[in-house]
């Protein structure tokens, strides 16, 4: 189970990746003070392992999720599900690490990290940069930090990279 809390305008959303579905809850203020069911997307072809919610151009909600096959999107309004990135150069299943919504892109561009690399795509599945972020070693986890950088924790080191270019900014051994 993986979850993410996302604030959009004055509404908090809780997005949860379950066994074969993604659930979206919205925070209900007084008198309820709890998350209430908003949308449910069941019977997904690919099991969600990682989940994120983006707001495209300030108006369209999209669930982005990672699976062992790649990365997928769900349009919250229509419920349509489609692939945004499937790493076809890897024959077996992948380990998705992170879905990072790039700053200053109106929620439209992402850095999706899996295995020992990351790819820049938009929410419709088009590659947006001719750059593949390449980690020095396979990270066990990846996190976005507010300084426009990402950190990848490996067995031997922690790498810090620019989220915009993928270039190495620093290493902790």
UniProtKB/TrEMBL annotation:
GO molecular function, one term: protein serine/threonine kinase activity
PROSITE patterns cross-referenced by the UniProt entry: CNH
Span of domain CNH: 1-173
EC class name: transferase
UniProt keyword list: Kinase, Serine/threonine-protein kinase, Transferase
EC number(s) recorded for this UniProt protein: 2.7.11.1
A Gene Ontology cellular-component term: cytosol
SMART domains attached to this UniProt entry: CNH
Family: Belongs to the protein kinase superfamily. STE Ser/Thr protein kinase family. STE20 subfamily.
Full protein name: non-specific serine/threonine protein kinase
């Amino acid at each position: 189970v993986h979850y993410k809390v996302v604030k959009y305008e004055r509404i908090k959303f809780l997005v949860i990746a379950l066994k074969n579905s993604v659930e979206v809850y919205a925070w209900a203020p007084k008198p309820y003070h709890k998350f209430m069911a908003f949308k449910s997307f069941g019977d997904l072809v690919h099991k969600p392992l990682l989940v994120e919610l983006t707001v495209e151009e300030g108006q369209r909600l999209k669930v982005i999720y990672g699976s062992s096959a790649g990365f997928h999107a769900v349009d919250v309004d229509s419920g349509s599900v489609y692939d945004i990135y499937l790493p076809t150069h890897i024959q077996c299943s992948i380990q998705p690490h992170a879905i990072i919504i790039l700053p200053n892109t109106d929620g439209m561009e992402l850095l999706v990290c899996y295995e020992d690399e990351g790819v820049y795509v938009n929410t419709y599945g088009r590659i947006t940069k001719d750059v593949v972020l390449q980690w020095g070693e396979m990270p066990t986890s990846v996190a976005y930090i507010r300084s426009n950088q990402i950190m990848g924790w490996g067995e031997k080191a922690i790498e810090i990279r620019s989220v915009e270019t993928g270039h190495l900014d620093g290493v902790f051994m």
